[in-house]
């Protein structure tokens, strides 16, 4: 481990690649990782997203060396690190909360990793100061963790993780313990820093908004496997599976009838995104985004408007179909003016391929 | 790494087994000792003698009424005081806590010295009967009582509960009895049990003040018939242990029930 | 004693935080504000403060009530001075051994499930042994290590007669063994919260930053746990110093420990009319315990911020 004495810009290094191959890990009966494959390019920020218990944190801890695998391998820059202990991996990790050492002042927390590496005291102090500047806390070096707010503590934790010039930065739900405003601010700051330093980063979160707004690619996990890993836009617009579609963003479940490669919904024929595992004529639930539903006020329309909520540029209108199905539609506020509760409305759908809900 | 972890998981078991044997040894020894009879035989003779032993029932009865008196007086004094501080003068918490913890700094043998002087001319009913023990045991139990009640009251949304009750027209005594008390009943039960246990084992004050309580009887009997005293002390330790153990199970269940409703969970 | 001073000051500061320049009416309101504390203050004043004041006053009086420093001088010389030394030695020994063993045991207990039966049983047993069993423990040990105790007999059966070897349950070593038996559970009670405050993230973060197990203990866990450990040690020391029942029940009041000698002086067992010498010894104890506890609270308050 060499420590440069130049300005923070010098922290920038040619990124490191990471690859998970067939990771398996069980805790008793529960399989936290069930054949996870994932490749992260140098300098890329990948967010792992999924419901609690999907194995995303386990995957991150496996990369950190804090968790062992039953099978599979972890490659860092092409080299197998599966058997390397955590304290030899050079991974900078930021924990969910409370990870700062309470007995050390902020600057000593940041310098901790350098001290273990035998860096001279003067260099250590200067490096810690630079990193604290980087996270905007250079005037707080003498304070103790309990004197800082939650957001400040996480910034220090970030500085501490970066101080050792890690090969990969690991973020384990670092924002989940913070309140909304600080969370957004720190989220954007982490991304700015990550781009500036150019470090390969794995970010674990259960908050889809967080994942979509920060990551180069988002991997949606389910039961220890990766369902889909793609850019945020791709993930939202072309979800590979119904699980991803429902986990990311809001979805309407509208009844439809399968007809070959199409499905008939409220009188409209829509193309199926993937071959239906259903017979012709079978009743299914079709997944539709609120923004791909259009309502227009018509006296003989089949939907009945029940509610509306103004959200700025768009207005979300809730309507009920004759069969009792509730339908959400995001409409430009200017066109939604005459869709008041009680009004009848005609329903149309955007002509995009659609997915079917699972198990229905 | 993994071997290190596995080894780390094993030493506590060894420590626990060794410690368990160490702490059980005197108890097992007591049991064996209490079963000894003449000529290296064992019998329930000592246990059989217990009930008819002169003084046991009398002193046990004295200690029990001192215990109940202490519990009652403690609750009467401390539940309103701690509730009041929590509700009306949170800034005085440290002050009341400081006074309540003072008995930890005053050894009982020193306290009893002063008690002898202060109450030497008090009416017979105070210094000639175990009533004085009730008064002083409330003091000795103060550190436990305060901490237990303070913890109990801190765990409930006291101000909201009291405001709601007052808003519905309840008087202060009704608020304390019907609203505060039921909500901290585990803490009250805990404080009461600790008081009870303290009284059943307290020797310093009662021996110096020449009161015939259960522990004093144990010591004086032990000088002539150790078997009986060993049997009785084992029994009393077990009873207190069982009471505390049951309390910990009851209170554990209660905190689980309450968790969804505590403000921090939301 | 220092403890009461600091808390009184905090109380006073709390009061003076009210708006300045109290008018007559505000004084009434303020007095009424204290009304709720009146029963508590009156009670502790009569049954706690008054006896302690009488001890302090009596320590400086002769039997006719005249001022003297003779009691205090006697209390620190000859057999009484030696009693202080013995008491402090016994307390230091049992506090150190109890603290070390108790800390290890506490860590072991914490490795079990928090809502398991074992944890609950250990907590309850610790509560009983640490606080309430002075006399009972004396008898339990008579049955164990007394001249005809089960262990004594077992050792004699294998040819090791400890009483022949000079051991007695009723001397310094014997009393130390019994004291340790209640010091370990007390340590368990007071030190467990500190161990519970240790976060798994600290170990993992240290490991992540490159620390070995030893480096983690040296730079993080050790420094974090040292203050609460010392605080607990002080509490154990004070506890042992104040203990009376166990030693009295074991030795019939013939061992040179300060509480035992106070007991003897107060009951007039040795020489009559030396009650005030007993008070001087008591004053000495209060000073020692008070100093120890003052340091204890100082450390406790500081580390509460780390481990809260």
Automatic annotation (TrEMBL), chain A:
Keyword terms, alphabetized: ATP-binding, Nucleotide-binding, Transport
Cellular component aspect of the GO annotation: ATP-binding cassette (ABC) transporter complex
Superkingdom of this protein's organism: Bacteria
ABC transporter domain segment(s): 18-248
Keyword Heme included in the entry's annotation: no
PROSITE patterns linked to this entry: ABC_TRANSPORTER_1, ABC_TRANSPORTER_2
Record GO terms (molecular function): ABC-type quaternary ammonium compound transporting activity; ATP binding; ATP hydrolysis activity
Enzyme Commission number, as recorded: 7.6.2.9
Class of the enzyme per the UniProt entry, highest EC level: translocase
PANTHER family linked: SPERMIDINE/PUTRESCINE IMPORT ATP-BINDING PROTEIN POTA, SPERMIDINE_PUTRESCINE IMPORT ATP-BINDING PROTEIN POTA
Name of the featured protein: ABC-type quaternary amine transporter
Organism: Solihabitans fulvus
UniProtKB/TrEMBL annotation, chain B:
Subcellular location: Cell inner membrane; Cell membrane
Entry GO terms, CC: plasma membrane
Transmembrane region(s): 12-31, 64-87, 99-119, 125-146, 187-210, 230-250
Pfam families: BPD_transp_1
Keyword Nucleotide-binding (UniProt): no
UniProt GO BP: transmembrane transport
Annotated membrane topology: Multi-pass membrane protein
UniProt keyword annotations, A-Z: Cell inner membrane, Cell membrane, Membrane, Transmembrane, Transmembrane helix, Transport
CDD domains hit by this protein: TM_PBP2 (cd06261)
InterPro entries: MetI-like (IPR000515), MetI-like_sf (IPR035906)
Range of residues in the leader sequence: none
Domain ABC transmembrane type-1, chain residue ranges per copy: 60-247
Family the entry assigns: Belongs to the binding-protein-dependent transport system permease family.
Protein name (Swiss-Prot/TrEMBL): ABC transporter permease subunit
Lineage: Bacteria, Bacillati, Actinomycetota, Actinomycetes, Pseudonocardiales
Automatic annotation (TrEMBL), chain C:
Ranges that cross the membrane: 31-60, 80-106, 127-150, 170-195, 216-237, 249-268, 280-299
Entry annotated with the keyword DNA damage: no
Protein topology in the membrane: Multi-pass membrane protein
Keyword hit for Protein biosynthesis: no
Domain ABC transmembrane type-1: from-to ranges: 84-298
GO terms under cellular component: plasma membrane
Location of the protein in the cell: Cell membrane
InterPro entries assigned to the protein according to its UniProt record, in alphabetical order: MetI-like, MetI-like_sf
Major subcellular site: membrane
Pfam family, one: BPD_transp_1
Keywords: Cell membrane, Membrane, Transmembrane, Transmembrane helix, Transport
BP GO annotations: transmembrane transport
The family this protein is said to belong to: Belongs to the binding-protein-dependent transport system permease family. CysTW subfamily.
Name this polypeptide is given: ABC transporter permease subunit
Organism of this sequence: Solihabitans fulvus
């Amino acid at each position: 481990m060499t420590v440069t004495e130049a300005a923070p810009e010098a922290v920038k290094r040619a990124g490191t690649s990471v690859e998970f191959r067939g990771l398996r890990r069980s805790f008793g009966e529960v399989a936290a990782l069930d054949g996870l494959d994932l490749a992260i390019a140098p300098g890329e920020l990948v967010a792992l997203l999924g419901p609690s218990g999907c194995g995303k944190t386990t995957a991150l801890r496996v990369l950190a060396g804090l968790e062992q695998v039953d099978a599979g391998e972890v490659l860092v820059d092409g080299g197998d690190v599966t058997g390397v202990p955590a304290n030899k991996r050079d991974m900078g990790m930021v924990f969910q909360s409370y990870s700062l050492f309470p007995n050390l002042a902020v600057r000593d927390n940041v310098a901790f990793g350098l001290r273990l590496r035998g860096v001279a005291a003067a260099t250590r102090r200067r490096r810690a100061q630079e990193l604290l500047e980087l996270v905007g806390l250079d005037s707080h070096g003498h304070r103790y963790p309990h004197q800082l707010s939650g957001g400040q503590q996480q910034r220090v934790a970030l500085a501490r993780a970066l101080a050792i010039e890690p090969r990969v930065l690991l973020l384990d739900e670092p924002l989940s313990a913070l309140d909304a405003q600080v969370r957004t601010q720190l989220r954007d700051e982490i991304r700015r820093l990550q781009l500036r330093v150019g470090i390969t980063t794995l970010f674990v979160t259960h908050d889809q908004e967080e994942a979509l707004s920060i990551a180069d690619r988002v991997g949606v996990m389910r039961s220890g496997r990766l369902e889909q890993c793609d850019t945020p836009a791709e993930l939202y617009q072309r979800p590979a599976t119904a699980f991803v579609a429902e986990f990311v963003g809001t979805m309407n479940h509208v009844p439809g009838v399968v007809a070959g490669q199409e499905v008939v919904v409220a009188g409209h024929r829509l193309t199926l995104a993937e071959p239906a595992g259903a017979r012709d004529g079978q009743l299914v639930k079709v997944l539709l985004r609120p923004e791909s539903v259009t309502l227009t006020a018509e006296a003989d329309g089949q939907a009945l408007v029940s509610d509306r909520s103004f959200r700025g540029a768009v207005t979300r209108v809730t309507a009920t179909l004759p069969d009792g199905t509730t339908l959400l539609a995001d409409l430009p506020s200017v066109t939604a003016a005459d869709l008041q509760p009680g009004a009848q409305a005609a329903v149309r759908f955007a002509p995009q391929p659609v997915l079917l809900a699972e198990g229905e | 790494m993994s071997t290190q972890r596995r080894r780390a998981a094993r030493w506590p078991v060894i420590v626990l087994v060794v410690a368990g044997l160490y702490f059980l040894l005197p108890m097992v020894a007591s049991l064996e000792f209490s079963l000894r009879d003449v000529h290296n035989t064992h019998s329930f003779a000592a246990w059989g003698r217990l009930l008819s032993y002169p003084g046991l029932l009398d002193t046990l009865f004295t200690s029990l009424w001192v215990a109940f008196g202490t519990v009652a007086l403690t609750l009467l004094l401390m539940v309103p005081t701690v509730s009041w501080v929590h509700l009306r003068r949170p800034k005085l918490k440290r002050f009341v806590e400081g006074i309540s913890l003072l008995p930890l700094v005053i050894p009982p043998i020193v306290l009893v010295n002063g008690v002898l002087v202060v109450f030497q001319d008090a009416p017979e009913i105070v210094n000639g009967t175990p009533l004085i023990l009730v008064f002083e045991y409330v003091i000795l139990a103060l550190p436990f009582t305060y901490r237990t009640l303070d913890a109990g009251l801190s765990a409930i949304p006291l101000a909201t509960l009291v405001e709601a009750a007052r808003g519905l027209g309840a008087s202060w005594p009704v608020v304390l009895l019907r609203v505060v008390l039921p909500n901290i009943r585990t803490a009250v039960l805990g404080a009461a049990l600790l008081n009870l246990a303290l009284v059943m084992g307290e020797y310093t004050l009662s021996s110096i003040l020449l009161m015939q309580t259960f522990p004093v009887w144990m010591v004086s009997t032990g000088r002539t018939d150790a078997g009986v005293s060993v049997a009785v002390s084992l029994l009393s330790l077990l009873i207190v242990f069982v009471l505390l153990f049951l309390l910990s199970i009851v209170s554990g269940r209660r905190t689980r029930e309450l968790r969804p409703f505590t403000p921090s969970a939301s | 004693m220092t403890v009461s001073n600091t808390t009184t000051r905090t109380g006073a500061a709390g009061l003076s935080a009210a708006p300045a320049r109290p008018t007559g009416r505000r004084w009434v309101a303020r007095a009424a504000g204290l009304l709720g504390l009146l029963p508590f203050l009156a009670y502790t004043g009569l049954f706690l403060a008054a006896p302690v004041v009488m001890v302090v006053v009596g320590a400086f009086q002769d039997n006719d009530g005249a001022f003297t420093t003779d009691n205090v001088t006697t209390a620190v010389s000859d057999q009484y001075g030696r009693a202080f030394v013995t008491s402090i030695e016994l307390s230091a020994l049992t506090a150190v051994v109890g603290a070390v063993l108790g800390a290890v045991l506490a860590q072991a207990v914490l490795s079990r499930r928090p809502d398991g039966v074992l944890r609950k049983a250990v907590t309850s047993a610790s509560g009983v042994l640490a606080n309430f069993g002075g006399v009972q423990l004396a008898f339990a040990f008579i049955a164990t290590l007394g001249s005809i105790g089960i262990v004594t007999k077992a050792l004699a059966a294998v040819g090791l007669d400890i009483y022949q070897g000079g051991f007695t349950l009723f001397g310094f070593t014997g009393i130390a063994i019994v004291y340790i038996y209640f010091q370990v559970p007390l340590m368990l009670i007071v030190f467990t919260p500190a161990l519970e405050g240790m976060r798994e993230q600290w170990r993992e973060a240290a490991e992540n930053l490159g620390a070995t197990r030893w480096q983690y203990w040296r730079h993080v866990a050790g420094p974090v746990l040292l203050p609460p450990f010392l605080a607990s040690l002080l509490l154990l020391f004070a506890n042992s110093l104040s203990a009376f029942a166990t030693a009295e029940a074991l030795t019939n009041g013939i061992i040179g420990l300060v509480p035992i000698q106070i007991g003897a002086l107060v009951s007039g067992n040795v020489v009559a009319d030396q009650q005030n010498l007993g008070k001087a010894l008591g004053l000495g104890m209060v000073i020692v315990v008070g100093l120890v506890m003052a340091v204890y609270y100082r450390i406790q308050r500081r580390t509460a911020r780390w481990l809260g």
